[in-house]
Amino acid sequence: MRRALFILPLLLFLVLAVYFALALRPGRNPQELPSALIDKEAPAFQLPGLNGDGIARDALKGQPILINFFASWCLPCREEHPLLMRLAEQEHVPLYGIDYKDKPEAARRLLQEFGDPYRAIGVDRDGSVGLDFGVYGVPETYVLDSSGHIRKRFVGPLTAEEVNKELLPLLKALQRS
Amino acid sequence: MRAIVLSVLLVLASQAAAVEPGERLSNPALEARARSISTTLRCLVCQNESIDESNADLAHDIRVLVRQRLLAGDTDTQVRQAIVDRYGQFVLLNPPVEPATYLLWFGPVAMLLIGCVGVAIWLRRRPVATIDTAPLNEDEQRRLDTLLRELDH
């Protein structure tokens, strides 16, 4: 009993050490927030298209998809752009874009220059759809299952590691179910 | 005098909020409610400022949303809930008291109580010095006398 009491401070220290190690581990972004909408149905939206057809939540149901919020003024979006191209061209992922608080001409110019990975793009001129999704920093990428429920959100530019280890396996699992 | 007035003005100026004139509601009562709600909501871009103080674009959007909901007739709680539904509990600067936050709210008090109990146990277990009040026997009296005599010299 006595001895147990002496070990107590050591145990407390170990608990704290594990906590700090987790909180300080490299690659963790302390500003990243889990979406409040995980496992909930995505907010309904109906947006005019940037080129041709617009997009609406209910019309996108039926298969797991990605929704990517981007903007021409957003530099990190250009960083992830090659990855999005790869997802669309090599992995044939159904990727839909929402052009967030952007001038449509500027977005069109960007996609002409760097390529267009999206199956369709909705224009969210005033950012209200972004607000409904809880977007707080573009780019953000949402994984929706075939019933239109949000299963995962990536904040900030996607990385190859995130795509290979999380995004693609999740999409495969959703496609199977 | 001038210096005092100026410094008072400076202090007041630093209290100014980020609310832009175009955002304000014409109804002063509603605007006051919007302001008081805004001070309790976190700006998710800066994360340590309320949306009332932040100049971030997102803070502006949420301020406008708060005002739209108020104009639509929502209560303060409904407005706050609408923001929480989108951004999660983290958006509240003052976390609500609920099972998930019990540790946060009551943890410090619990630690204090545990400490108090520990101290109480320790104090009780500590051997108490007993005071012997019996009168001195002859031998002791003699030793005391010798000591006192030595002191006198």
Supply the CATH class of chain A.
Alpha Beta
What's the structural domain tally of chain A? 1
Q: What is the level-2 CATH architecture name of chain A?
A: 3-Layer(aba) Sandwich
Distance between the ends of chain B: 74 Å
Overall pLDDT of chain B, averaged?
A: 87
Structural class of chain A: alpha/beta
Supply Rg of chain A.
Answer: 20 Å
Largest sheet of chain A: 5 strands, mixed
CATH fold-type name of the largest domain in chain B: Helicase, Ruva Protein, domain 3
Gross morphology of chain B is elongated
Q: Characterize the overall form of chain A.
A: elongated
Helix content percent band of chain B: 55-70%
CATH homologous superfamily annotation of the largest domain in chain B:
Cytochrome C biogenesis protein
Overall number of strands of chain A: 7
Helix-strand blueprint:
The complex is a heterodimer of chains A (177) and B (153).
Chain A: H1 2-24, E1 46-47, E2 55-56, H2 57-60, E3 65-70, H3 75-89, E4 95-100, H4 104-114, E5 120-124, H5 128-133, E6 140-144, E7 150-155, H6 160-176
Parallel strand pairs in A: 3-4, 4-5
Antiparallel strand pairs in A: 1-2, 3-6, 6-7
Chain B: H1 2-14, H2 28-38, H3 57-71, H4 76-87, H5 102-125, H6 138-152
Helix pairs in contact in B: 2-3, 3-4
Describe this structure in words.
The complex is a heterodimer of chains A (177) and B (153). With 177 residues, chain A is of the alpha/beta class. Chain A has one domain (37-176): Glutaredoxin (3-Layer(aba) Sandwich), CATH 3.40.30. Helix content of chain A is 43%, strand content 18%. Chain A has a 5-stranded mixed beta sheet. Chain A has a two-stranded antiparallel ribbon with strand order 1-2. Chain A is elongated and about 75 Å long. Helices cover 59% and strands 0% of the residues of chain B. Chain B is built from 6 helices and no strands. The longest helix of chain B is centred in the C-terminal third of the chain and has 24 residues, at 102-125. Chain B starts with a helix and ends with a helix. The mean pLDDT of chain B is 87. At the A-B interface, helix 5 of A face helix 3 and helix 4 of B.
